[in-house]
Specification:
With about 750 residues, the chain is mostly beta strands. It has one domain (about 5-735). It is globular. The protein binds MU-OXO-diiron (FEO) and calcium ion (2 copies).
């Protein structure tokens, strides 16, 4: 979600652990001065307009030999920044809408009317499509790693477009924006969250979903088929009225980034779940201000703070009561209320996309925070597996999980995928990253035996499960580096280096003041002002950057790494010495990188944005990159002047500037959408991505007047009834049958 809403931008890290100090005066990036240069020669303004019906190409791409011998990656014409209400791709490419909010997942489900009267979302696509992964199906209908014409798409449905509590596009008249919320509205809103799995097929060159497929299913925020795994299973922290033995959870929520395991299962990260819950004003007192209050505050749930939708007011039934996390019962352990319910959210959840009968697992060994994607380091037989993860809130951390079990190549095709997940993801070590000013860094184990954690004054950890459930507090204790909102991470298949998007941080400041503000440091070195529409200023690091790290010789289990910044987001006209440090041109410039995926087929790094800073000039976008490696650039010293006149310098490490042939804008999304999630068929010829929340700035008061919707995508692209904007999955193909990005 963009900065139009607060829930994606939590700011609960007020821990005093140090950031590198360095500070001076912000360099102003005056966008007014930057205008005028606009489009460059290689830019195609409208590219091949989305859904233009360019049939082109082959009737059966699956049978077409790859033109790899003659292909040049990134040879397409860059797409110009634009604010069209369309998805624009380069000439020679076609983007088609495949699967939008409300589309049926069973043969019996009626087509989506898209007028606010639809129901039955347990059998329809959810809202705010996000991370997405491909699971191939062979001609025999069984899992296949090589299938290219038939497969399952597993994807997240992160949230919903809302205003004053109500997901107004879901309700006929915009819904109820005061408390209490009607049960029928709550039921719809809960059900459009979670995950969906949908079969897709290429028939005669045209991709479509298979609504009658027995593989299709939804996991929602109310689903019962979820269990708690790993060290926190059965722990006192997990006891709820729903699961007095602390082994079960109900549903998954605010699912953002994804991952795919080496054994072929789907990983989904629970991100901004905390905002959906409510605690009574007197709850801190009811808890005797015990350590659970410190935990709740650190994870962003203060007593009396309004919940995002007011679901707790839907009625007396347990499915509404569970959203109130106050201590209400008389029990000592919480088996008669939902005081511990928040401890059951905030995980990487694993599910078998091929088998809806198997319970999803919340993998507590990987820690509890605002999860984004989960990226495996390249697996090496006989070595442990590493899983890299970010915690997306201002000033939160980067983590690594290292499995206790060593990788067995035969597990790439196991008889039982779910128990293989148990083997690798239920026991291991969790680490948090510290980035140093010399371009090195280290991984600090979050262990209850670590003296800094055992002696931490901010929270008394009972056991290792407590460390994992309260990983943010444990990471505070060891002085982890506060980052500019870690979003997705992905592993460069070519060399094993790990890339992280740091989307932006409004709390990075030259003169930190107030709760949570932090100084620039080596890994988060920029503080500047971005002028939106020539009037509104955004301070801190509004454009974000992409950091990468290289593990030391020990590989996945390494305790040390080196790092640099692959690219700094910036407007191409921004000051080159302090803001546009990567010398981005008009064909390359971007702001607020979020989605980040290396293609296993082409090796291209795909960068997607979820921006609120450059959106006065362009809708969010996707770029293709062919990056080098850690250390291919140079050290750069940024100089700032503090309010008291003292000078401070920050050393950072800037990767080699991407030349015109190494970074290029490939796609611009519909109005007010973010671009997120990416997967491909194994031949690289069909790419699936998600267009999330088009038209999210529409006013609820304008619900009856489609002319006032800020977007009418994808109905204006020919997909479905009604004009209310809908999040959707699109498929991108190349008209000559080639690979995407060539
Ligand atoms: Fe759901 Fe951090 O983006
Ligand atoms: Ca985001
Ligand atoms: Ca994201």
């Amino acid at each position: 979600m963009t900065t139009l809403l607060d829930f994606n931008d939590e700011n609960s890290n007020t821990s005093p652990n140090p950031t590198f100090d360095s500070v001076l005066q912000a360099r102003l990036s005056r966008r007014g001065l930057l205008r005028g240069g606009a489009a460059t020669a290689g830019t195609s303004l409208l590219g091949g307009l989305a859904l233009a019906g360019c049939g082109g190409g082959d009737d059966n791409p699956a049978a077409t030999p790859a033109p790899v011998a003659t292909e040049t990656l990134l040879s397409f014409a860059a797409v110009a920044k634009n604010r069209l209400d369309a998805v624009t791709v380069p000439p020679g490419y076609t983007a088609s809408v495949l699967y939008a909010l409300g589309d049926p997942l069973t043969a019996a489900t009626p087509a989506y009317k898209n007028d606010g009267t639809d129901t039955g979302f347990d059998n329809r696509a959810g809202d705010h499509h996000d991370g997405i992964e491909w699971f191939g199906l062979g001609a025999d209908g069984k899992p296949s790693a090589s299938a290219v014409a038939n497969g399952l798409l597993a994807m997240n449905h992160e949230a919903t477009t809302d205003e004053r509590l109500s997901s107004f596009f879901l309700h006929a008249n915009g819904g109820t924006s005061t408390l209490p919320r009607p049960a029928a509205e709550v039921d719809k809103e809960v059900a459009i969250h979670g995950v969906s799995v949908v079969e897709v097929k290429n028939t005669g060159g045209k991709w479509a979903t298979v609504p009658a497929s027995a593989f299709n299913f939804r996991l929602t925020a109310l689903s019962t088929n979820v269990q708690i795994n790993g060290p926190a299973r059965g722990n006192a922290l997990m006891v709820t009225k729903y699961s007095p033995d602390g082994t079960q959870a109900r549903g998954t929520l605010n699912n953002c980034g994804t991952g795919k395991t080496p054994w072929g299962t789907f990983l989904t990260g629970e991100e901004n779940w905390a905002g959906y819950f409510f605690r009574n004003a007197a709850d801190d007192t009811a808890r005797n201000n015990d350590k659970s209050v410190a935990s709740l505050k650190r994870y962003g749930r203060n007593a009396a703070a309004a919940s995002r939708h007011g679901w707790e007011t839907g009625g007396a039934d347990d499915r509404y009561a569970r959203w109130n996390n106050s201590k209400l019962g008389a029990s000592t352990d919480g088996r008669d209320d939902y005081r511990n319910e928040l401890n059951t959210f905030g995980y990487i959840v694993e599910l078998d996309a091929y088998d809806k009968t198997r319970a999803a697992r919340k993998r507590t060994a990987l820690g509890r925070f605002a999860h984004e994607s989960a990226a495996f380091g390249n697996p090496v037989a006989g070595q442990p597996l590493a899983v890299y993860m970010g915690d997306d809130s201002r000033g939160e951390y980067i983590y690594k999980f290292v499995s206790a079990a060593s990788w067995l190549a035969a597990d790439a095709n196991p008889a039982d995928r779910v128990t293989t997940g148990d083997k690798y993801l239920d026991s291991g070590k969790l680490y948090v990253a510290r980035f140093n000013s010399d371009g090195k860094g280290d991984w600090v184990e979050l262990s209850v035996g670590n003296p800094a954690i055992a002696a931490y004054a901010g929270y008394k950890f009972a056991d290792q499960a407590d460390v994992l459930v309260n990983a943010r507090l444990a990471a505070d204790a060891v002085g982890a580096t506060k980052m500019d909102r870690p979003e997705w991470c992905s592993t460069n298949v070519a060399n094993g280096e790990i890339y992280f998007t740091l989307t932006n941080n409004s709390n990075r400041a030259v003169n930190p003041s107030g709760s949570g503000q932090m100084s620039p440091d080596s890994a988060n070195p920029r503080v500047y002002t971005d002028l939106r529409s020539g009037t509104t200023t955004q301070n801190g690091n509004p454009n974000g950057h992409i950091l990468r790290l290289k593990e030391a010789a020990a590989g996945s289990a390494a305790l040390a790494f080196s790092w640099d910044v692959y690219a700094f987001g910036a407007e191409s006209g921004a000051a080159p010495g302090s803001v546009n440090l990567s010398s981005l041109t008009a064909d390359q410039d971007f702001s607020s990188p979020d989605g980040l995926v290396f293609s296993p087929s082409t090796g291209i790094l795909w960068i997607q944005t979820d921006d609120g800073a450059y959106t006065d000039v362009t809708n969010c976008m996707m770029l293709a990159a062919l990056p080098g490696q850690v250390g291919d650039g140079a050290k750069k010293t940024l100089a700032y002047t503090k309010a008291d006149g003292s000078a401070l310098t920050v050393d950072t490490y800037v990767g080699k500037a991407p030349g015109a042939d190494k970074l290029k804008r490939f796609l611009v999304g519909a109005r007010e959408s973010e671009i997120t999630g990416l997967c491909e068929t194994p031949d690289g010829k069909a790419m699936f991505i998600n267009i999330q929340h088009p038209g999210e700035g529409t006013k609820m008061a304008d619900i009856a007047d489609p002319a006032k919707y800020t977007s009418q995508w994808p109905s204006n692209a020919g997909h479905g009834a009604g004009k209310r904007p809908r999040s959707a999955t699109i498929v991108i193909t190349k008209n000559d049958g080639g690979r995407i990005g060539s």
